[in-house]
Design brief:
By secondary structure, this protein is an alpha+beta fold. Helix content is about 50%, strand content about 5%. The protein is built from 18 helices and nine strands.
């Protein structure tokens, strides 16, 4: 009898429970009346859905990046199609005309964000404003960010910080060259992914937290990269919630570990700022100081916006740090990779720098407006390799119509930016690196959310608020690096352009570059 009792408790009861749940979902899927299908026009559906999981088997666990899988589907099913991931309806947009309708005409209807396990665990229970639901909290935090960090006045105040960090990175590389250059070629090998990562993390932390050097830089960068990879995973439990307890693949455990690492860093900065707050002048205040001034309260007090004060401060600062660090580093890495695979482009950049700046002083941010070819190089990089190839999903707040198709409330809408940027109806030689297109045929197209043929930062009310600052950093860094050093590939073979999976598309392999001095040694001090 004891054996039968154990068998019943440990095997039969869970099996019956799972069977009942499965039957519920199958009845809901196959027997429920499809009112929308009867009365309203729906976007084409990808065939091959399985019971219960829908189309999850086409995405989850694949080595091919998701945006490439969805791009292949768009070639078959059109610029807007629908899928079912578990119990969740998803519409994928792959065309600039449809994207314009989503981000402009239907911007408010699609303004909220869906809830994912990654957003809950690593986003402080959805308090990262980039993934927060549409409402009072999101509006208030976004307004604070735009006024306290991303206003024109604040960006100009921080100009010296950006220029100083770029110069320090150039100086470190000059010192490395001095001690390690090859005596015959006069060149030194530098791994540029790490170079960009180190520069951008230190620069971002200086602007946000006023700290000049990160104590454990490599660990923080590793945690940030892990976070973006985990955010990019297609988790079965996000679409079939009752399977979450199983933690398939161990993703929840990994997320909690990464969240703890990021929170430890944020907590240290917050405690240091509280200790030193009264010692700073208004001019010396950084973004975290500004947040403390706005949300100053005991840490156990709940703010009217619904979150603990410390959570609001830490989540907002980390949101900005994450948004600035990974995407900027990725864009710089792809830009330099593309330039080094196209030496004619490198020569054009060098000619522009020699003509507009010369070799007798370093570049300042105020010079960037004159460097129109470098701006074109960055645009073409963002076209070919948007740092976030799939827009962060939007969710329909109410029923609406897109491209003539009915979109039910709660449907998730994803724009495949990488596919939109390679539309053959818009771009000639769409897979080739041709910066001059932005000086000729496409000179009136920008990347600031107004031209839907290229929207690497998104568009509408949920677009990336740090776009202007990010572009300034990319332009200044790329121009300063190419002015300061002559460079080439270590071999005659092209640089490997394989992408890694994740929310952002980092280059999968290192970027080794041969560097030689491009200026007089007195300009590296």
């Amino acid at each position: 009898m004891e054996f039968l009792s154990l068998l019943y408790d440990n095997i039969i009861t869970p099996t019956l429970a799972c069977t009942l749940v499965l039957l519920f979902f199958m009845c809901k899927l196959f027997l429920a009346p499809k009112k929308d299908a009867q009365h309203k026009r729906l976007a084409p559906e990808v065939p091959g859905a399985w019971p219960i999981i829908g189309h999850l088997h086409l995405l989850a666990g694949r080595k091919t990046p998701t945006h490439l899988i969805l791009a292949s589907m768009a070639d078959k099913y059109g610029p807007i199609f629908r899928m079912r991931l578990g119990s969740q309806l998803v519409v994928v947009v792959s065309d600039s005309i449809v994207a314009k309708e989503c981000f402009k005409a239907k911007d408010k209807e699609l303004a909220t964000r869906p809830k994912f396990m990654a957003s809950e665990i690593m986003g402080y229970n959805y308090s990262f404003f980039a993934i927060a639901p549409y409402g009072e909290y999101w509006r208030e935090i976004r307004k604070i960010v735009l006024l306290e960090l991303l206003s024109n006045r604040r960006i100009e105040m921080l100009r010296k910080v950006r220029e100083s960090h770029v110069r320090k990175a150039i100086k470190r590389t000059f010192d490395h060259w001095s001690h390690n250059k090859d005596p015959n070629s006069g060149a030194v090998v530098v791994e540029m992914k790490q170079w960009f990562s180190r520069l951008i993390i230190n620069l971002s932390i200086a602007m946000l937290f006023g700290e000049e050097e990160v104590p454990d830089e490599s660990q923080l960068l590793k945690s940030i990269r892990n976070l973006f990879e985990l955010f990019g995973e297609t988790l079965v439990s996000d679409f079939i919630p009752w399977l979450r307890w199983m933690d398939l693949g161990g993703y929840e455990k990994a997320m909690r570990k990464t969240a703890e690492e990021m929170d430890c860093a944020a907590d240290r900065w917050l405690k240091e700022h509280r200790t030193k707050r009264n010692l700073k002048s208004k001019e010396e205040e950084d973004f975290m100081d500004a947040m403390l001034s706005l949300f100053d309260a005991p840490s156990n007090q709940t703010h009217p916006l619904g979150f603990d004060t410390d959570v609001i401060i830490k989540s907002t600062c980390l949101n900005l740090l994450l948004g600035a660090t990974d995407t900027t580093t990725i864009t710089l890495t792809w830009a330099l990779s593309l330039v080094l695979n196209n030496y004619n482009v490198l020569r054009n950049i060098q000619d522009e720098l020699d003509t507009k700046i010369g070799k007798f002083r370093g570049i300042e941010e105020s010079d960037i407006n004159k460097l129109i070819y470098i701006q074109a190089v960055v645009k073409e990089t963002l076209r070919l390799h948007p740092a976030v190839p799939l827009s962060v999903p939007h969710e329909a707040i109410e029923d609406c119509t897109i491209n003539g198709y009915h979109i039910q409330k709660g449907t998730r809408v994803i724009s495949n930016l990488a596919k939109i940027h390679r539309d053959p109806k818009v771009w000639v030689d769409l897979n080739k690196f041709r910066p001059k297109r932005f000086l000729t045929t496409h000179k009136d197209i920008d990347v600031k959310g107004n031209n839907f043929e290229i929207i690497p930062f998104g568009s509408g009310r949920r677009m990336c608020p740090g776009m202007i600052l990010g572009l300034q950093i990319v332009h200044l860094t790329l121009a300063s690096l190419i002015q300061s050093f002559d460079m080439k590939r270590p071999s005659i073979e092209p640089i490997d352009m394989t992408q890694s999976p994740g929310l952002t598309t980092a280059k999968a392999t290192p970027l080794h570059v041969l560097l030689m001095l491009g200026l007089g040694s007195d300009l590296y001090g």
